[in-house]
Amino acid sequence: MFEARLGQATILKKILDAIKDLLNEATFDCSDSGIQLQAMDNSHVSLVSLTLRSDGFDKFRCDRNLSMGMNLGSMAKILKCANNEDNVTMKAQDNADTVTIMFESANQEKVSDYEMKLMNLDQEHLGIPETDFSCVVRMPAMEFARICRDLAQFSESVVICCTKEGVKFSASGDVGTANIKLAQTGSVDKEEEAVIIEMQEPVTLTFACRYLNAFTKATPLSTQVQLSMCADVPLVVEYAIKDLGHIRYYLAPKIED
Amino acid sequence: KSKQTSISSFFKKE
To answer: What is the C-alpha separation between A203 and A224, in angstroms, rounded?
Structure first.
């Protein structure tokens, strides 16, 4: 028996919004430690890794490890039926071929449940090696989303250059060149407004704008985003999900042809 | 011109 309950459906809606542009379907691996999802996008350029810890749920029970393949479009249709403040419970029997998603209004006067067919997905699990990153940048998630949106107008690619002075995002195309520099913040009143750079070595990498923009769909989950970079390895874009876990996106770099 | 690499070339199948 698997049962996981969250106090607010809005968090699940935001998580789905953060992955559904990249993935059509995905397997949710449930164990007593929580829920994990790892999947590559269709073109195998990026990888999404979601971790939701069992202790972050209002109620969590998983008697046997369970892999639930879900069509994310179907799940989105179901979540659209929830009010943001509703409680949400996911339930499945061991070896079941369906999952039940139940919404309860705060006053318990409205209860709705939706049974969704599960899918058998061919899942290719990738081992992600530990990396000592040359640069780790923490910055406001809204600022990162704004930069990705702005630079996508100028080019398909964005160059991220990180030094100890700051981080520079550049795009160059038919219109011309765009550069956005962010310096490490001195003192800030609010932690969520800070730009913090931990640099071992300067690094310059090129990435496809459309994937960065897809990652920024996770912005409503977190006030800050963390970018981890190292020469010739995938960029890691991480959004923490408060008291519940995190979503990490890995993006393969573009290299000189 | 830069070329897009694939994520599976960096991470090994388990």
So the answer is: 21
Closest approach of A128 to chain B, Cα-based (Å) = 6
Residue by residue, what is the 3-state secondary structure of A121-170? Answer: CCCCCEECCCCCCCEEEEEEHHHHHHHHHHHCCCCCEEEEEECCCEEEEE
Cα–Cα distance, A177 to A55 (Å, whole number): 47
Residues shown for chain B: 14
A135 burial (CB, 10 Å; 0-12 / 13-18 / 19+) is buried
* Amino acid code (one letter) for A189: D
Q: Cβ neighbours of residue A58 under 8 Å, at least 6 residues apart?
A: A5, A6, A7, A87
Residues A207-246 pLDDT 10s? 999 999 999 999 999 999 999 999 999 999 999 999 999 9
- Cβ of B5 within 8 Å of Cβ of A254? The answer is yes
pLDDT tens digits, one per residue of A124-157: 789 999 999 999 999 999 999 999 999 999 999 9
ipTM above 0.90 for this complex: yes
**Which member of A157, A234, A256 has the closest CB to residue B10?**
A234
The rounded distance, in Å, linking the Cα atoms of A115 and A97 is 10
Check if the beta carbon of residue A225 is closer than 8 Å to that of residue A217.
no
| Chain A residue with the nearest C-alpha to that of B4 | A254
Contact A126 B12 (CB under 8 A): yes
